[in-house]
Each structure stands twice: as C-alpha cells, then as structure tokens.
Design brief:
By secondary structure, the chain is mainly α. About 65% of the residues lie in helices and about 10% in strands. A two-stranded antiparallel ribbon has the order 1-2. It has a two-stranded antiparallel sheet with strand order 3-4. Helix 2 packs antiparallel against helix 5, helix 3 packs antiparallel against helix 4 and helix 5 runs antiparallel to helix 6. The longest helix has about 30 residues. The two termini are about 45 Å apart.
Amino acid sequence: QLFRRLTGRIPGSGLPRTALLWTLGILWTSVSAEVAVLPLLARIFGELAFNPWINLLWLPVLGGVVMPLVLCGAAIVAIPGLDQAGGLLLTLAAECCAWLMRALAFFDAQGLLFSQAVLRPQWPALLGCYGLLASLAFLAAGRAKPRAAILASLALLLIPATWQAVQDSRQNVSLTVLDVGQGQSVAVALPG
C-alpha cells in the first residue's frame, strides 16, 4: 500500500511510466528484503551488506532467462531422446548464473558493493530490530499505532547494548588458559 501511495503520484503514462514503476518496484522489493535480513546477516556473519541496486541486474536475468531455461530443461530432460537438449538448456542456465557471479566479482573488485564488518548483535537486539520493523510496517499500513511494541523493541535494543557497554568499560583484564587436546589456547579479555 505504501509503495502504491508513493508511486501513485508519478506523472506520465504508457511504456516509460511502466518501466519506471517496474524499476522502482524491484528496488522497493530489494530494499525491503535486505532490511529484513540485515539483522540476521549481522548476527550470523558479523557483516552488513546493503546493495539493493544489484537486483536491477539479477532479477530480470534470473526471472526472464535462468528460470525459464531451468524449467524447460528439466521438463525436456525427462523425455526419452531429448535428454541432450534438456541438458543444453540446463547448461545455458548455469552459464547465465556463472556470468552473474563474474559480474558480482567485477563489481566487488571495483569497490561498488557495500559491506561493513560489525559486532554481532545479541538475540535481544535481533528481537528489538524485528519488533521495530514490524511496528514500522503497521505504521506504514495505516493501522493502529503500536506504541507499546515500539517501546519494548527499543528496550530490547538499548538495554542489552548499554549493559554490555558498562561491562566493557571495566578495567579488568582476564587471562584464560584452555586445554584443547594437543595444545593450549589462551584467551585474553581486555577492557572494551
């Protein structure tokens, strides 16, 4: 609904307006999906990568070329005598995917892909993040204002982070020696 409200004011008609709305739709969907997975990426990989523009290249190729080739190839390969033709279609789909991966490597080599290492958030922060996202979705849809959910989400985001900051500001240094079998491991904890 929010996307329709925002794009409903775009002037024009015909093919140029349709192309613009299609492009904006891909970007809107891509941004929405990336925002939804950013907290998980930070938790699992310790990294934030936000590159929604890349889907302007990816989605048309995947949806318009790769998927039809895969579906046709999978259907044809099951027909006796046409297995080579089906294999060719599947190989073409694989080549398209390899081209996309080479393009991704090129963009990365040119410094066009954003990626930032971050501290991995704890699970309360993840819940707080998703609570805020859900609250924003309710607000954007024009439904009830979820004040309690916003406050609870902010508490989940801020209280554990504040507690960790207080713990990290202590001047304690600890050394832990662990027996790991055929050697030893030493863990040093410093302030901050």
